[in-house]
């Protein structure tokens, strides 16, 4: 790989020597990368204001002579997220989304779309006047949809009955489909839905993160949507939330 320049969102930063840092980054064309900023904690010229988590930065990358690692040659700050730094609640929401994102994404395939989703989500968390407390759940659901785990939200997967008029549509987690009550299998992980929760899922699937900010379902639908996100996360993505981290199940 030759030297290259690319935008990146900083996911994590760590120190490995007195003045040197390692960074976990997500880029639109190469997916997840780990790179080293040698002298990064002391640099006054090459990385001015760049090396903080959540920053959007235009980095220069260089491959080592042995090809074993990437180093950062310079950085230009594109967005430092000032609206998040002074708001602990929103910073926590953004960090939760980033942790989930990092745990899910491995391959660079589809990384442009994923990069745009993460960038738009961070912008929404920072700048929307009102922010739904369900935003992290919506982000997990949309990420699952982007990974190809979104079932049809319109009709029963077996008989074709319109789901929003069905008395008791059920999400069958293991099968990854939504069924009317008559067609649902009797066993397995089943989550009852209704017209309201289906409408929210459809909006999360279609709309931009900024449009989720004002989306506040009632208490019963919040519980359903949390269960849906947890089901996809555990069964299809192989993750669980524990002690402030997303862990492999």
Name the shape in a single word: elongated
Mean pLDDT metric: 91
Q: Tell me the count of domains.
A: 2
Strand content: 15-25%
CATH topology of the largest domain: de novo design (two linked rop proteins)
How far from one another are the termini? 34 Å
CATH class label of the largest domain: Mainly Alpha
**What characterizes the major β-sheet?**
5 strands, mixed, barrel
CATH superfamily caption of the largest domain: Recombination protein O, C-terminal domain
Please list the strands of the largest sheet in the order they lie side by side: 1-2-3-5-4
The number of helical runs is 7
User: How much helix, percentage-wise, in residues?
Assistant: 25-40%
Gist?
The chain has 249 residues and is α+β, with helices and mostly antiparallel strands. The chain has seven helices and ten strands.
Notable traits:
3-stranded antiparallel sheet; single chain; OB fold (Dihydrolipoamide Acetyltransferase, E2P); de novo design (two linked rop proteins); alpha+beta; 10 strands; 7 helices; 34% helix
């Amino acid at each position: 790989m030759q030297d290259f320049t690319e935008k990146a969102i900083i996911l994590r930063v760590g120190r490995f020597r007195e003045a040197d840092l390692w960074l976990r980054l997500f880029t639109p064309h190469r997916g997840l990368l780990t790179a080293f900023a040698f002298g990064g904690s002391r640099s006054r010229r090459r990385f001015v204001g760049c090396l903080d988590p959540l920053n959007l930065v235009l980095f220069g990358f260089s491959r080592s002579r042995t090809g074993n690692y990437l180093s950062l040659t310079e950085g230009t700050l594109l967005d430092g997220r000032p609206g998040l730094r002074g708001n602990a609640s929103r910073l926590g929401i953004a960090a939760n989304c980033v942790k989930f994102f990092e745990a899910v994404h491995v391959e660079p395939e589809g990384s442009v779309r994923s990069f745009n989703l993460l960038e738009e989500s961070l912008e929404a968390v920072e700048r929307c006047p009102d922010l739904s407390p369900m935003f992290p759940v919506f982000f997990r659901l949309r990420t699952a949809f982007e990974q190809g785990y979104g079932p049809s939200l319109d009709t029963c997967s077996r008989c074709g009955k319109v789901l929003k008029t069905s008395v008791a549509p059920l999400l069958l987690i293991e099968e990854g489909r939504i069924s009317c009550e008559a067609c649902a299998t009797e066993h397995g992980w089943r989550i009852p839905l209704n017209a309201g929760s289906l409408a929210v899922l459809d909006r999360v699937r279609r709309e931009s993160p900024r449009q989720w900010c004002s989306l506040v379902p009632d208490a019963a639908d919040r519980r359903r949507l949390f269960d849906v996100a947890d089901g996809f996360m555990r069964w299809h993505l192989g993750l669980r939330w524990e002690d402030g981290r997303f862990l492999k199940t």
